[in-house]
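S.,

Sequence below, as promised.
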Amino acid sequence: MRMTVRNLIMRSVLMFCLCVITTYSQEEHYNHGELNWKSIETAHFFVHFHQGAERTANVIAKVAEDIYGPVTTLYQHEPDHKVNFVIKDYDDYSNGAAYFFDNKIEIWAPSLDFIFRGSHNWLRNVITHEFTHIIQIQTSMKFGRRFPGFYFQWLNYEEERRQDVLYGYPNTVVSYPISGFIIPSWFAEGVAQYNRPELSYDKWDSHRDMILRSYVLDSAMLSWSEMSVFGKTSLGNESSYNAGFALTKFISERYGQDAIPKIAKNISRVNNVTIDQAIELALGMNGQSLYQEWKDTITAQYFSRTKGIASNLVEGKNFILDDDSVIIAGPGFANLYSAFSPEGKRLAYASNGEMDYLGTSGLVVGNFTTKKSETVVIGVRSQISWSPNGNKLYYTKHSHENPNGSEISDIYSYDLKEEEETRITYGRRAISACVSPDGVSLVFTYEGDGTVNVGRVDSAGNNFRQLTDFRNGEQSYNPHWSPEGSMIVFGYSVKDGQDVAWVRSDSGKVTFIEAGDDDARDPIFTPDGKGIIFASDRTGIFNLYQKDLKSGSVVQLTNVLGGAFMPSADQNGAIAYSLYTSKGYKLKMLDHPSPSDFSTSSYVYRRPVAKTEIDSALPRNRFDFTALRNYNDNDLPQAEA
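The prediction came back faster than expected:
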């Protein structure tokens, strides 16, 4: 078939759009005819949502209007029509996607709980992130939103041709594509995370600092070209996000807040075909020179600030399994949620092993006596709990086995003797689970409309009881029972970072036992029940601490360069935990942990002062999520999303 110039352009546009769309990680698509969709209209947005996501929609309507002015004025660009938010809360999946050609943003309501990210208010974070994508990328487009790109094509034909065709057989095809925008991944994601510093909706926190610091100290930073593309492992992709955030912050703080919009505007010039040209026009140096300046600066800072820690490390020992192979240096960048068996001779944990992505993680059981390990269940990346007799393991994982095809997380058990898995709950949206010391009950966290509560069921999955009554986007994490079964300790967040709280297993009364400006997370009880062990970034680096519940005193147990998380303790007091390194989370063990004074080797992150003064007229990272307008049915016309 003969191809006209219009056909060629339209085909290139379609191919380019499909390429853009597939760069996002999407859930499997099912038709959800059971959902009833409604819409909220604000001054600049439409918010489309289904039943059960009303609170999320109200929050999004407020946050979107709050950040509209700050983001659009920074780039001096406003969308040409209202932006549509589509809210999804039928899957246990967290993500956001910006379709900048369509002025559409999709938000999955469940809060992001990701091992390579700190805890932030999910909706403020993801809304600002995705809307910044829309504005920054539209600012950088060369031909506007309706014309993504085109290519020139030249065809040549054989001299000989048949009587029944117009041309001879084609023997040459030359195509020259011209894209409507050229934005490397580090810039797109770095800008979206940095958004505007006055908002502070996405901060450079201890987790992000940990990832970059570990790369720098091990001389393993992503190169200038590696930062520009995805398609790596889960850790590698996150590292592109992380490096982009750090470099974007560096540019803004050293060269002024207007430097990023200038680079974006320069990208839109037709004669600029690389990010290096756009950077050179804005800063007077090319991209490689900027990268080297940033790398030299942070390398000097990190080595200087960790010098005292490096000379006083307390990390523990490596695990030796599988005929003397060393887990700490072995496969897997995600070795997580270690749990000692009741008799202390086995260790269960979740690991991605040789696989590239977190979604392929499995439940591994290592035996200290036989020095063997075995992956017994695939698809497990949650915390793990042993039955009192050590015969079963409890965990959560996702399944599409429900009437509407939703991706729902439920509680499962695995019988190690029978080698058989049993599904315990159906449709509970359980995120993490822990079995009681007597084996009679299971406590777990579960999601609904962007809020995560703590509940319990019996060991068969029946007799559900809600223990906490959070309603405003609060998040609960990884509950653990006290040794006598009366209390449940868990992580809690409604701000940046986490606190440690506990709730009675009978009355449901919540009390905070570690709360403050630091991020305190991953709490467990000591074997005697007199204290808790948890991770905290109070020095700027996550380490393990132990708190005496009677006196309130807190002592530091580890002193690491990366980060110490997810402790587990056996009956003899040994502690297993996940140590973050430049190669990901590896397992370590403290045989006889003892408190030490690490005050002379502390590390405190200092945020550099930006060259441009902060605009005090812009909204800050705070507002009351309980004081939202409640849209009633009269305000909500039926809408197709």
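The radius of gyration is 26 Å.

Coffee later?
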